[in-house]
Write a sequence for this structure.
């Protein structure tokens, strides 16, 4: 086997990535802010509560019992999880998601007949119109209407 394939195989067989304590704390803080965004109605309320949360994280920065604080924080985050979390309107689950979806190809196809692989959507209801008769002479050109002069008073 090629050396490149061996490296790719070893990377693919690796287990899930283990996170450091700092990464876990950062993720807890980020998820806490997202949960707070689901609960806070006003931006000022959100900013005040975010400051309180940041102060709580900063006060325990150099604590010796980091693992137990992390477990307590995850438990508290689980308790405060919103039943209907806020999501962006344009993301899946949002109010604007797929509001204007793309139209199917058979509808947007500009040919007179549908493509041969796709069946017609509806049978024709009316017979096709006959083509208009050909015009032999062009319509006559009319002179422009006379220009009226304004009267001065």
């Amino acid at each position: 086997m090629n050396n490149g394939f061996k490296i790719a195989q070893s990377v693919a067989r690796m287990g899930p990535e283990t996170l450091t304590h700092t990464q876990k704390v950062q993720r807890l803080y980020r998820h806490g802010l997202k949960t707070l965004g689901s609960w806070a109605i006003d931006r000022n309320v959100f900013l005040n509560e975010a400051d309180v949360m940041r102060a709580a994280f900063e006060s325990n920065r150099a604590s010796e019992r980091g693992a137990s604080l992390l477990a307590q924080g995850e438990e508290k985050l689980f308790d405060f999880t919103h039943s209907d979390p806020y999501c962006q309107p344009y993301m899946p689950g949002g109010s604007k998601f797929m509001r204007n979806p793309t139209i199917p190809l058979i509808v947007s196809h500009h040919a007179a007949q549908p493509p041969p692989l796709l069946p017609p959507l509806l049978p024709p209801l009316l017979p096709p119109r006959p083509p208009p008769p050909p015009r032999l002479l062009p319509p006559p050109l009319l002179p422009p209407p006379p220009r009226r002069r304004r009267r001065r008073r």
